[in-house]
Design brief:
The complex is a heterodimer of chains A (about 90) and B (about 230). Chain A is built from 2 helices and 3 strands; from the N terminus they run E-H-E-H-E. In chain A, about 30% of the residues lie in helices and about 25% in strands. Chain A starts with a strand and ends in a 7-residue tail after the last strand. Chain A has about 90 residues and is an alpha+beta fold. By secondary structure, chain B is α/β, with parallel strands linked by helices. In chain B, the strands form 2 sheets. A 9-stranded mixed β-sheet of chain B has the order 2-1-3-4-11-10-9-6-7, sandwiched between helices. In chain B, strands 5-8 form a two-stranded antiparallel ribbon. The chains are: A alpha+beta (about 90), B alpha/beta (about 230).
Chain lengths: ~90, ~230
Amino acid sequence: MPTIVVEVMPKAELLDPQGKAIAGALARTGRGDFQVRQGKRFELSVEGQVTDELLAQVREIADDVLSNSVIEDVVNVRVLETAPEA
Amino acid sequence: MARIGVITFPGSLDERDAQRAIRLAGAEPVALWHGDHDLQGVDALVLPGGFSYGDYLRCGAISALSPIMTEVVTAANAGLPVLGICNGFQMLVEAHLLPGGLIRNDHGMFIRRDQALTVENTDTAWTNEFAQGDEIVIPLKNGEGGYIADAATLERLEGEGRVVFRYKGVNPNGSANDIAGVTNERGNVVGLMPHPEHAVEPGFGPNTRERMRSGVDGLRFFTSALQALQAV
């Protein structure tokens, strides 16, 4: 079954308290000084072929439902490459 | 008697308190269910606080797609007074009835405190019994109450006087411009993070200078709605 991946990130200009907390923990435990931002990955699996029409539909879902454009950006919509069947 | 609906979503917590507040204000509360396509002819609506759908996806996002929200959006656009409290406020922004968005508190922690607010707009359906600049105290309790909007939206809200409540003394969650609550252009839809329904009855509200737990500043939200309905 093909899978379409949608990735959503908090807008770059907004504070990301989750990422900040993770960065703090990394620094505290001596793992390095990183800036961290935390986003979301959705996997939408469907029966049949991934057509351009279906991809357009998923892009619309990504914009309207999976993300809120006030606080987030959809950074990636792609078909997950799977190993060819033997 | 005016009938004010309170919608219960899966994971709502404060619908009983909202119903009680409505009763104490002198109106009849009507329990509504998110899965219905029916507002039962109510005169006003409250979207209560809670953690609907466990805050999955984004706070209020899945509830904003509930069956009854079709009717809520239509009624709100037609002028029905709608108050969104906490999770209800999050639903109103997700349903695009109010501008902006709400993100995790800047300090990363859940916060619960009796919060002072300044009332900055007394022309809305839910604030007409306040005076401009009134300071009120009602409980605040949330993890994702940071109000944000882009610069142009903030400028428009400020310019049009659509910031209804501003945090006073301390900004508890990193909200832009200390914004605690906003309204739509028409002034019938109001959303705020703090909880007026928890400050409506002596003995159960926030502390005041006079007496412990005697704060009832929240009651005027609901009596304001009755006033707005009478004025129609």
